[in-house]
Every structure is written in C-alpha cells, then in structure tokens.
Amino acid sequence: MADYSTYSDADLTELLRAGDRVAFTEIYNRYKLILHNHAWNKTRNDVEAQDAIQEVFSNLWTKRDMLQIGSNLSGYLYTSVRNHILNLFAKKQVQEKYIHSIHHFAQQKTALTDHRVRESMLRDAIEKEIAELPPRMREVFELSRKQHLSHKEIAAIMGTTEQTVKKQVSNALKHLRTKLGLLQYIYLLWMLKH
Question: What is residue 65's DSSP assignment?
C-alpha cells in the first residue's frame, strides 16, 4: 500500500476527486489541526471551530467531483473555513437582531399592557368616586363633564340657576380632588377633555 503522507496536495486532490477515501483521510489528518487553530483564532470558541472544520471536510468529500481546487489545496481549505465562519457571524448577527427585536417588542407590549391596566384601574377609581357624589351634584357633574353641556343648558334641564350649576360643578371637582389625590385628579381632568 502506498504511503499517502509523501503525496503532494495536488496528487491528493486528484485522488480525492476519484473518490479515494485514503486520500481524503490524509488531507484531513494533514490539515485538521492547522484549520482548527485558524478557526479558533477567528471564533475564540472551540465548538464553533470544530463545527467549521467538520463542515468544510464534509463538503470536501460530498462535493469532491465538482470542486475547483486547483493546485492550492491549503488555500482552498483556509478560504472554506473563513467563509464558513463569516456565514456563522452573519447568522449570529441576524439572530441577535431578531432576538433584540422580539425582546424590544415584548417590553413594549408589557409596558402597553401595564399602562392599559393602570389606566383601567384609574378610570374605575374615578368612576367610583363620581358615583359616590351626592345625587344632584353627580348629575350636574356628569352633564357638565361627560355630556359636555354648558352651565346654561344644565340649569334649564335641572330647573335651577347657572350660578347653582357652577357651584355644584366646582364642589364636585373639589370633592374629587380631595378623594383622588393630585395625580388622579389631573388624569380625571385630562380624561374628561378627551
């Protein structure tokens, strides 16, 4: 049996194209450590470096009859490892962007949901306090702030004076401000305008 370790890269490449497994094994043994070091220097990750070497040698065998290696087998192998690593980096970038995008979306959705829950709770608290106003004061307040009627229109509906309506609305707002606190009161005023 021939000693393949004495064969040149060009000879091994020709034997590889012909499907010679011993030639493939010799190429693998000749370049695996050098290529692994090259891959590790680029990735700083032993698993990724090993995956790159395995991928390159797997492609070398499966595509042996179609490869355009020429006489520079080492250059071909180095380039294959480099291209594999560049593809790996590109995939990682896409994955990181995708993960970042999902994380950002999840944070926005959580913030939006949280905001809506708080808004709903705030509305409920405000509605509860409005419901607890004395009946006539509540009716005037609701006609003024929810129905957006003028003091004159409310006075006509309720059979009272504009001054009384104005005083009832003012008293209702004072009462709500005391019960709700400043922040909830400000939200109430904002909510009633929109």
Answer: T
